[in-house]
Design brief:
By secondary structure, the chain is α+β, with helices and mostly antiparallel strands. The chain is globular. The chain has two domains: about 5-40, no CATH class; about 40-190, Nucleoside Triphosphate Pyrophosphohydrolase (Alpha-Beta Complex). Helix 2 (about 150-155) packs across helix 3 (about 165-190). The chain has helices spanning about 85-95, 150-155, 165-190, and strands at about 5-15, 20-25, 35-40, 45-50, 55-65, 70, 75, 100-110, 115, 120-130, 140-145. A four-stranded mixed beta sheet has the order 1-2-3-9, with no helix packed on it. A four-stranded mixed beta sheet has the order 7-4-10-8, with helices on both faces.
Length: about 190
């Protein structure tokens, strides 16, 4: 069945630097009306940098809405019309100083589709070269190195709560484990 809701009225309530908030009145599939509050965001990118030792370079930063210092993959906001991969490359350099020889697309997610229009694109970066970080004005964070396996078990034990980080860690672990298994099979069959 089609449960598409039709917009009757859309009212902008706030238009800020990062988000826009609107209040929409919609028609439901049964013909009744309902109110939807929507937060619009231009989207973002997260990038999981994995070095040659299998360690991941994360950032720890204070997140005001949660009131917590969270361990996350380097990430940033997409500029209007910006290519997600270009954003990933920029954010990796800004927050960690790394450049990468290869990027693997880990997919896209909707972090909270019940009220927010935002798409997050996730990448894994490998073939890392160290450089100098250059944080945005007003951006404060620490860069930390973690074994991928440790991060995976932290996700599984509910110790990492950032959605983009959890998704990146789980997908990267599966991909890298599969590559490792394939490489081992190739070596044993020679």
């Amino acid at each position: 069945m089609d449960y598409t809701e039709k917009t009757l009225v859309s009212e902008e309530k706030y238009n800020g630097r990062i988000i826009r908030v609107r209040r929409d009145t919609v028609t439901l599939p049964d013909g009744s009306a309902a109110v939807r509050e929507v937060v619009e965001h231009s989207g973002g990118v997260g990038v999981l940098p994995v070095d040659d030792n299998g360690d991941v370079w994360c950032v720890r930063q204070y997140r005001y809405p949660m009131g917590l210092h969270l361990l996350e993959v380097p990430a940033g906001k997409l500029e209007p019309g910006e290519d997600p991969l270009a954003c990933a490359m920029r954010e990796l350099g800004e927050e960690t100083g790394f450049t990468a020889a290869q990027y693997t697309d880990l997919g896209m997610l909707y972090p909270s589709p019940g009220y927010c229009y935002e798409k997050l694109y996730i990448y894994m970066a490998t073939g890392l070269t160290r450089g100098q970080a250059h944080l945005d004005k007003g951006e404060f964070l620490d860069v930390e190195r973690w074994p991928l396996d440790t991060l995976f078990y932290m996700v599984m034990r509910d110790e990492i709560h950032d959605a983009k980080t959890a998704m990146a860690v789980v997908k990267a672990k599966l991909i890298l484990d599969e590559r490792k298994n394939r490489d081992e099979e190739t070596r044993t069959h020679r």
